[in-house]
Amino acid sequence: MANKHYNITVRGLVQGVFFRASTQQQARSLNLTGFVRNEADGSVYLEAEGREESLARLLQWIKDGGPPHGRVAGINVEEGKVIGFTGFTIG
Hints:
By secondary structure, the chain is α+β, with helices and mostly antiparallel strands. It has helices at residues 19-29, 52-63, and strands at 4-13, 33-38, 44-50, 71-80, 88-90. It starts with a strand and ends with a strand.
């Protein structure tokens, strides 16, 4: 089964609530690769690659609010070209 690549922007209360660290932990537990970073507009941007089932589980975790103190108000997902990341990092 081929890997997929998603570009994901998350809006809401997603900075200052350990969203990046929690996303990294969640992604690694799902054997996903990519990165997550804060954006200047208060959103969080991530790119994740892996099996479609694992990506769906990550998206559901985000839609459910992410970490305990996170509040997700919106999420935008676009499929991209697989890059071949070797780990999941925080930017």
